Amino acid sequence: MAFSSALVLTDLNDYISPSQACIKPVEVQKKENEEQTSIKVNEAGNYYEVSVDGTEEKLESASISLNDCLACSGCITSAESVLITMQSQEELYKILKTNAEAQAAGRTDDIITIVISMSPQTRASLAAKYDISPMQAHAKLTHFFKHHLGAHHFFDTSFSRDFSLVESAREFVERYRTYMQKGGEQIEAARLEQEEKEQAEENTNGKTRQRRRRARPGDGDANGTASLEEMPMLASACPGWICYAEKTHGFILPHISAAKSPQQIMGSIVKDFYAKQLGLRPNQIYHISVMPCYDKKLEASRPDFFDEEFQTRDVDCVLTTIEVDKMFSEQNVDFKTLPEAPLDELFNKIGKSSSFQNPTLYGSSGSPSGGYLEYILATAARELFGVQDVSNNLYVQTVKNADFTEYTLKSSEGKPLLRFASAYGFRNIQNVVRKVKNNKCAYHFVEVMACPGGCINGGGQIPVPAEETNLTAKDWISHVDNIYRSVEGVRPEENEAVKALYSEWIGQETSDNAKRLLRTQYHAVTQNLTNPLATVW
Amino acid sequence: MAKLELVAQLKGHNDRVWQVSWSPTGNMLATCSGDKTVRIWANTSHSNTSQWECIHVLEGAHKRTIRSVAWAPSGRELATASFDSTTGVWEYDERDKEWECVATLEGHENETKSVAWSSNGSLLATCSRDKSVWIWEVESDNDFECLSVLQEHSQDVKMVAWHPHEEMLASASYDDTIKIWREDDDDWFCVDTLKGHTSTIWAIDFDKTGDHIVSASDDTTLRFWKQYKPNNQEGIATPGNQPKWMNVCTISGQHERCIYSVSWSKVNGKVASASGDNHIKVFAEEPTTQTDDAPIWNMSACSSDAHGVSDINSVSWFPTEKHADWLASGGDDGNVNIWRYVEDGV
């Protein structure tokens, strides 16, 4: 399956085998006239279509791009793996080399400003492997990229994530209000009634794996209400989930939050705001992000994140944690003993605590997949119901399996106000999608992530090191998770740097700027397999 | 030599018959076909076992070939796996005396090849050309919930079969292996991978006890596998404290072509196989007082050209004592044959 939650380059042991042909359809323009044409090949090996009257038209060669492969499942994953290497550390080395040459030749205008943004999950993974604290990892990475390699800046996507959280929460509140206006009250009341009925039945009959007879039409089905696009809202930061939804469940796209992911918001910050600050054009900056998974490479190359005017991407290249770790050995660097460099002042989520002059790292509280659920819940509770502290009336329950958890905020009388859930992993995504399709999803927001365990267990994260013979994969993930959570969470509204940048760069929350810079769109992929002959049974 | 006598030939499907499945509770046979329908046949006369009628036609739920049909243990539900990538669940309505499609399970990316109900009817397994095996649980209100998506096969998965008593699943694939799956506290995982066949495995079946599996392959052999539990007396290693399956017997040279289907009778213990060489063969285990670590299987009956010149896609033994000698088969000729296994001198 193309759902690449655990795509690892090292598992490659075969290439595109001849028996499984690529099924990417080649779009052929339908010609008006039906006359005979012939194909000619000239000396250079180019193909021309020759029509009856002798005019020749050069034929385009069929091409497959990285995007086509990653979004398709027609042939073996090796093809995708081969193409994913197009976004690799080799690209970074190339730019560094050109920079070095330009520097030596005195062509300072040709030097590309290299910016690296790292995700906190990557930092936690490296900190776990090398047995150092997140701050030490961050400082050593700053040294590695800026002083050892020659990049110019090192940022933390925890910073841009705050913008994503704020925008997501704002969107949720908007959606909820619209939902209520469109008759949400009745739907909620019906759901509550259904729940109480089911609970009563469970109390009398007990919970078994028994089947209940199907309700016959006319038996009073409370869920026969129209479906609304506003609810539930589904998280949008996971590109694995987005690609899957676009490819197979186009109907669910209106439910997905329009907020950009932290990676892409950092892309906008770097190429829009920071470029202007530095007096550079966006294509004079090369932006690399370091992420816990390979699907982020696909996200970076989405056409929506390509600047047509300057012909540059918001994020030029994505490296995974594993690839960065490999760079250390390629560069003969002992990461653990690297000196620690001072952090960039800009676009890092740091603060100076009152007692020490050394900065402290900050993050977001909540799940290691960005803390969307927690932040949106807290914001919605405050703005919609006036609840300042959710912890008193929050009911958390693991449903079905460890990757599916329900969070219900109840009023002081015990009435459910907000129903949120986190659903990680393919099987849970299946269940969420199916429920939404059948209009049986009772949640208002679901934090959907493709990888079981969330981003901390992304496909590009460092697996259990071989030396740790006592630890299982589960133990290791738990360990990395703890390291991630050791970085204290600070709300966006409590972060002065975030607030300052927001007002300077975006302006008003509801402005056009906010829409343009902080939101994105999704596009359903229509499957048109025009060549069934290419499929081999 | 025993023989297979043709009891009845059921005609009605307009395309090849892909699978035949006996009802666990009644004298009914469900068959599915390339004509996108399922037909339910019943023996309509107590005295005449050759009199069969098609009593129901289940249609309209699938857009492409129905590749597999399976009865739930209750006998009142059916599941159909189709090339249109969906799996249909049908219920028999007592009031209307009609079969109705009550649920459609979506999720597979392409053609589903097989569907099977667990022994207690609470779980459903499906597999597909997309290399995955999905396990579903029945929820209330005819909603099915996806419990797990297992993606460890490296090729098309051809068939899934449940253990006769436990919640253990076996899957057979184009990648030449059989995988055994069980549940731990959070998810399903592959307990063992059975290697030995040198080509696609088309069909598998458990024996009555669930300790043995027989597999049919494109490599023209039938292989028998035995389960060795942890701390077994034979001293077979059981890594991870999980049962280990070993290939204890291989039948080769009996079929000239790909063996498409195999059925292990839960009543008389015989194994029937159907092949692209147009023959149906029945094998019996040599009775032996020793342990069954090296059983010997001999061919005891053969029906040549059982469906004329057409491939035979499916064979299935009758599930209960009532007609323990009945064997149903379905072929590319669109016919369903019901055979009776007759011992020597009877």
From TrEMBL, chain A:
It holds the Pfam family Fe_hyd_SSU. The lineage of its organism: Eukaryota, Fungi, Fungi incertae sedis, Mucoromycota, Mucoromycotina. Residues 194-226 are annotated as: Disordered. SUPFAM superfamilies: Fe-only hydrogenase. This is Iron hydrogenase small subunit domain-containing protein. The keyword Transport does not apply. Keywords: 4Fe-4S, Iron, Iron-sulfur, Metal-binding. GO terms for molecular function: 4 iron, 4 sulfur cluster binding. Residues 470-526 form the Iron hydrogenase small subunit domain. The keyword NAD does not apply.
From TrEMBL, chain B:
GO terms for biological process: iron-sulfur cluster assembly. It holds the Pfam family WD40. One of its GO terms (cellular component) is cytosolic [4Fe-4S] assembly targeting complex. Essential component of the cytosolic iron-sulfur (Fe/S) protein assembly machinery. Required for the maturation of extramitochondrial Fe/S proteins. Keywords: Repeat, WD repeat. PANTHER family: CYTOSOLIC IRON-SULFUR PROTEIN ASSEMBLY PROTEIN CIAO1-RELATED, WD40 PROTEIN CIAO1. It comes from the Eukaryota. The keyword Magnesium does not apply. PROSITE patterns: WD_REPEATS_1, WD_REPEATS_2, WD_REPEATS_REGION. The keyword Repeat applies. This is Probable cytosolic iron-sulfur protein assembly protein 1. Belongs to the WD repeat CIA1 family. WD repeats lie at residues 10-41, 59-100, 105-146, 150-181, 194-226. It comes from Mortierella isabellina. SUPFAM superfamilies: WD40 repeat-like.
